[in-house]
Amino acid sequence: MKKHLLLLAAALLLSLSAMSQADKAKFYIEGQLSTPNKAGQPWKLYNVRSQGITFSDSDTIYGHDTDRGVQLVFDHAATAHPQSFGCGLKFYRWQNNSGRWQVDSEVENAEAAFTQQKVMSIMLVLDCSSSIGDADFVKLKNAAKQFIDVIIDKSSDGNVHIGIVGFNSMKNTKSFDLRPLTKESRKAMFQFIDTLQLNNRTAFYYAINLGLDNMRQYASKLKIDKEMKYDGNYVIAFTDGYDNDSFDPKIGKAAEGTEHRYFQHVNQRIMKEKIRGAGIESYVLAIRGNDVDRTNTDFERVLSALSHNGNDNKFYSLNNFDKLQEAFEEIGTNLINKWQSLYCYIPRGYDGRVRWTIECGDVARKFFMGATGNIGGLSYASANYRNPDCNPGVGSGHLKGGAMFAAGLDMTFPVTDAISVGGYIELNYASGVGFAFTPTAMYSFPNNSAILLGVGYRGTDQFHSNGFLMRAAYKLSNPWYITATYSVGHGNTFMLGAGYTIFGRKD
Q: What pLDDT, on the 0 to 100 scale, is given for residue 208?
């Protein structure tokens, strides 16, 4: 029996190796690698293409030698994969002889990191007009703090610089000068946000203009190490109404619409101005306050014209303040993804096609194997047993049974993105050795949990209680899963158990 089970497991694992093909990956970067001919020349990855992963546009990436291998850096990397870059990227080489990809397990997995070699400036511009109301103003403050926490969670080394402008009227507008984001400066930023108070009027354009001035002055004096790069200027602005207070004799005054001079001045700064060689990207969040007519269709058009993110607009029109924190968190996460650098490694002296793939949580590309332990009970009737309640006075005998223990193995192979098929094999023991087998179907959820269902056969206690077996299991989003089995035939068995993922994504 054990020999047959081992042969079955070996056959399934052999099938696994045949199916583990990088060309089936949905998230990958691929290119042609060239080793330098002369000392001092860089490695070169050209004809670069990708799927499900974006980075700074470049057909050629240059690498340099490190103690971890030749390093290639894909800048501003982001991915639509639900697990992001959390599990790293596997490295594959193209085998011309076999015509397929071969994983190189000796090469360190690629990994993404919030870049520590770039400097960015962020200006938060927060509306403090009295139309917001006290309760919603607290929500705004909490959302701004949460944005800072999202950023500091990935970078607290001071390379990200944050300033704040709190505005209502021009006269009451307050500024918090840009400074490196650290655990210490975070406290000062929170204290400044807490001091902001509601008042009349809305000098929105003035506040953005002031924030850009502060950012320019700060960046011009900023000392940056030669190995670092100033990489971006970001404005995240919130308002609940039209500008009704901005004025400058040289610029003009604010008014509702995009044709007025103050609006055009701020709009052109955002679209065209560069600070320390980098452009300005702005995110505008807006909620219709009490002073904005619900039938006014121009409100979103005007404010969205002040949002700019490369080739995309980043305008958030929100229905209420309950959605504000979620929007700030999303912007923070997007900026973190934009700033990530993906560090990939290759062996020295290799030429040819290479590919890095994200495979974690990719259900359609992952073989699953799990080991289980089970405990329960069985019962069966001796040959001459009759139930006295059903047939009084007829026959004699007794029920047999007792505790039963089992160890099993689940194995499934992907068919679609969500469905895998395979089987479950088991050795069990009560007063004798038995076995079980069920064909199994597994449905996987996006969070990496899954349901396994199977119908098959169980023979127990030297086949005194063999019969029809039904089995269900629920895999948690971590490596563990729970199982339940029930079989009927010459007797009944019921078992509960726990399993652990051996192959397949564990978290």
A: 97
